[in-house]
Design goal:
The protein has about 350 residues and is an alpha/beta fold. It folds into three domains: about 5-90, MurE/MurF, N-terminal domain (Udp-n-acetylmuramoylalanyl-d-glutamate--2,6- Diaminopimelate Ligase, Chain: A, domain 1); about 160-305, UDP N-Acetylglucosamine Acyltransferase, domain 1 (3 Solenoid), CATH 2.160.10; about 310-340, no CATH class. β37 (about 300) and β38 form a beta hairpin. The strands form seven sheets. Strands 9-12-15-18-23-26-29-32-35-37-38 form an eleven-stranded mixed beta sheet, covered by helices on one side. A ten-stranded parallel beta sheet has the order 8-10-13-16-19-24-27-30-33-36, with no helix packed on it. The longest helix is centred in the C-terminal third of the chain and has 20 residues, at about 320-340. It has five helices and 38 strands.
């Protein structure tokens, strides 16, 4: 799709600087863009790459200076560029046929909502109720008495165990498992005896669950994921957790049982959270943080064990100085020894 920079500025309600009649064929990132492409610049750290790039135009924040090429100035260049990409390429959505494949198994008691698609070899269990326009892809499994809201998408081989509740506009990527038993055992007479896991999982509206992520059912009550929370691939959330709204949980996060998070919590890659902890609103846990105690709201934690950011940086800097410190101690010992001999 070929269009002008002026048209793109209108799409994103941006301020056009320079020649708006320049024609654009594609939208590409800085490292790949060439003549006929539009790219985006997130900030001053990308200025050198922008000046060296051969793109015909760019979406930029207000701070980026002119360099003779057309610019579209916006507050959020990444979001605006994404909107332009969608306009140029069209949003890729999964196939929506509005039909049930003849190889799928839908239990006679299940109530499949209007305009839903059920793919090959998918299974919809006894007593399941789905909203409208759901898309259940090939090989997905929805267990007994589950409830799905409108516009839910379950990608191939997703497993939803019995009695789970999925809100509206939830997207679950391939091979995720929702509602498996929590890891609960008691040692009795020298043996590990399983504690029955009789709860369920409740996913709020607009939740996204990444590929191969697991969310365990509660022991007696529900494990809950709040509205708008986005969960990356390979995340593990244990039984009885209460994850707040609009959290961001990045790949390989592991949250032990009975933890509670507030709103807008961010956990970077490979964060580990011990059981029965509370993470306050808008807390940020840096990559590989090992959280062993409650985290207050609006706190940025780093390290293992996790500490407030400034304290963690001091520990890290001290560790880097250890080799020099060891050399200094050796020199002092040698000097003292020589002094004794004299």
């Amino acid at each position: 799709m070929r269009t002008t920079v002026r048209q793109m500025a209108e799409w994103v309600h941006g301020e056009l600087i320079g020649d708006g009649d320049v024609l654009i064929d594609a939208a590409r990132p800085l490292t790949e863009a060439g003549p006929g492409d539009i790219t985006f610049v997130e900030g001053e750290k990308n200025l050198t790459a922008w000046h060296n790039c051969r793109a015909s135009a760019a979406v930029v924040p207000p701070s980026v200076p002119l360099n003779g090429r057309p610019l579209i100035r916006v507050a959020d260049p990444l979001a605006a560029f994404a909107a332009i990409v969608l306009q140029l390429r069209g949003l890729r959505t999964s196939e929506h046929t509005g039909r049930i494949d003849p190889t799928a198994h839908v239990h006679p008691t299940a109530q499949v909502g209007p305009d839903c698609s059920v793919g090959p070899f998918a299974v919809i269990g006894e007593g399941v109720v789905t909203g409208a326009r759901c898309r259940i892809h090939a090989g997905a499994f929805v267990g007994r008495d589950c409830k799905l809201g409108d516009d839910v998408i379950l990608y191939p081989h997703v497993v939803i165990y019995d009695d789970c509740t999925i809100g509206h506009r939830v997207l679950v990527h391939a091979n995720a498992v929702i509602g498996a038993d929590g890891f609960g055992f008691r040692t009795q007479n020298g043996r590990h005896v399983k504690v029955p896991q009789l709860g369920r999982v409740e996913l709020g509206n607009d939740v996204e669950v990444g590929a191969c992520t697991t969310i365990d059912r509660g022991t007696f009550g529900p494990t809950r994921i709040g509205d708008g929370t986005k969960i990356d691939n390979l995340v593990m959330i244990a039984h009885n957790c209460q994850i707040g709204p609009h959290n961001l949980l990045v790949s390989q996060v592991g949250i032990a049982g009975s933890c509670t998070t507030g709103a807008y919590v961010v956990m970077a890659g490979q964060v580990g959270v011990a059981d029965h902890l509370t993470i306050g609103d808008r807390a940020v846990l840096g990559a590989q943080a090992g959280v062993v105690k409650d985290v207050p709201p609006n706190t940025h934690m780093l390290g293992a064990p996790a500490r407030p950011q400034k304290e963690a940086w001091r520990y890290m800097l001290s560790t880097e100085r250890l080799p020099d410190l060891i050399k200094d101690v050796r020199r002092i010992k040698q000097a003292l020894k020589l002094g004794d001999e004299e």
